[in-house]
Specification:
Blueprint (H helix, E strand, L loop, with lengths): L8 E6 L2 E5 L4 E3 L4 E2 L3 E5 L5 E8 L6 E4 L2 E3 L1 H18 L4 E8 L9 H16 L6 H11 L3 H4 L4 E4 L12 E5 L7 E8 L9 H11 L3 H21 L2 H20 L10 H17 L4 E4 L6 E6 L3 H9 L4 E7 L6 E3 L7
Parallel strand pairs: 7-9
Antiparallel strand pairs: 1-6, 1-16, 2-5, 3-4, 5-10, 6-9, 7-8, 10-11, 12-14, 12-15, 13-14
Bound molecules: adenosine-5'-diphosphate and ligand DP6.
Length: 342
């Protein structure tokens, strides 16, 4: 039974995640229930910190995002999410929310995942709900599907579940952050990456309606998921990299066959994909793999001792603003309730 103590204030930190097997398509948009299970790596080195304070004197929710007062879509997303928290906690109080992403917002680096995982943690605590990690994952899912995975660290699987009420739809940790010490995620930050025009939640429903490749994707994902799980557990680098590329190519294919077509990549992103394939051809076996979510930045996975060689190759590509070398990151966790001043 959730506790219903007096609402107060709380802070929470969460990291984004990169999907290795993507969630794309919902069977229930209100409850954010996906058509397929997905698997991700929570990334270390990028983070969202969020503070929530419920206040009986407020007549509406307020949001400061990255130090600026926010309205429009971001405020609406937060307010709708807080409605879910209010309903569960049995309170009608509005809240003041302050949240900082220490990486670009809405550019394909999954700020919505870390943002809603951190908000779920801070808002549920501030509202007096004492959720289990699984309960927190279910709650975060309501803000952004991928946020359900950012509740956990390391490698994480989000179960699609079957129930119409979503009770069996939550993420769970698969392998801890230190499982594969040689693994690196070189995130190529694309210089002219456009801000996302359409939230993924909407774009994926366009895919369901219009892409002729989507049904086949749904048939192939469970097998790829099982194979990737095994490659991860066995630390089978070649198999892992091959599966990563195959899954990303399939995701891109359903995006490109959506009407109107979803094209998230820039010429520089495409040059990164080509460079990875070329590196692997030259090496004679996979030494790197790529994946991207609904954005232009490309995550290039590789392993020591090949990191320097792969990074050197990526640095020669024009149009890349920077390369961040990331490792698997930690689970979402509480931080002190006193945030930055307004
Ligand atoms: P991204 O790839 O960064 O997830 P999206 O367009 O899918 O891009 O999601 C970005 C949206 O997520 C923002 O416009 C905002 O509505 C929401 N968002 C991002 N960061 C936060 C945050 N820290 N707190 C609350 N909402 C956030
Ligand atoms: C391609 O859950 O981030 O990253 O509700 O728009 O925030 P929003 O959708 P979101 O969609 C994720 C799509 C993806 C794949 C994935 O992360 O599994």
């Amino acid at each position: 039974m959730p506790s219903r103590s007096v609402p107060g204030a709380a802070g929470y930190e969460a990291a984004p995640n990169i999907a290795l097997v993507k969630y794309w398509g919902m069977r229930d948009e209100r409850l954010v229930l996906p058509n397929n299970s997905s698997l991700s790596m929570t990334v270390g080195g990028l983070r969202t910190r969020t503070w929530v304070r419920f206040d009986p004197g407020l007549s509406a929710d307020r949001l400061w995002l990255n130090g600026e007062p926010a309205g429009g879509g971001p405020l609406q997303g937060v307010a709708e999410f807080l409605d879910v928290v209010r309903e569960e906690a049995g309170t009608r109080q509005f809240a003041e929310v302050r949240s900082d992403n220490d990486f670009p917002t809405a550019s394909g680096l999954a700020s919505s995942a870390s943002g809603f995982a951190a908000l779920a943690g801070a808002a549920s605590q501030a509202a007096g709900l004492r959720l289990t990690p699984r309960g927190l994952s279910r709650l975060a899912r309501r803000g952004s599907g991928s946020a359900s995975r950012s509740v956990f660290g390391g490698f994480v699987e989000w179960e699609a579940g079957h129930r119409p009420d979503g009770e069996d739809c939550y993420a769970r940790p698969l392998l801890p952050p230190d499982h594969w010490p040689e693994l690196r995620d070189l995130v190529t930050i694309i210089a002219d990456a456009p801000e996302k025009a359409v939230r993924s939640a909407r774009a994926m429903q366009d895919t369901i309606r219009t892409s002729t490749a989507y049904a086949e994707r749904l048939r192939s994902v469970p097998g790829r998921l099982a194979n990737l799980r095994t490659a991860l557990r066995m630390r089978d680098a070649s198999r892992f990299l091959e599966l990563l590329i195959a899954e990303c190519d399939d995701f891109r294919h359903v995006c490109e066959t959506t009407v109107p077509s979803l094209d998230y990549l820039t010429p520089a992103s495409r040059a990164v994909l080509a460079a990875v394939l070329d590196l692997n051809r030259t090496a004679g076996s996979p030494i790197a793999g790529y994946t991207h979510d609904a954005g232009a930045h490309v995550h290039v996975f590789t392993f020591e001792p090949n990191v320097a060689e792969v990074e050197g190759r990526l640095r020669s590509i024009p149009g890349i603003a920077s390369i961040r070398t990331l490792r698997p990151g930690p689970a979402a966790h509480p931080i002190p309730a006193t945030g930055p001043a307004s």
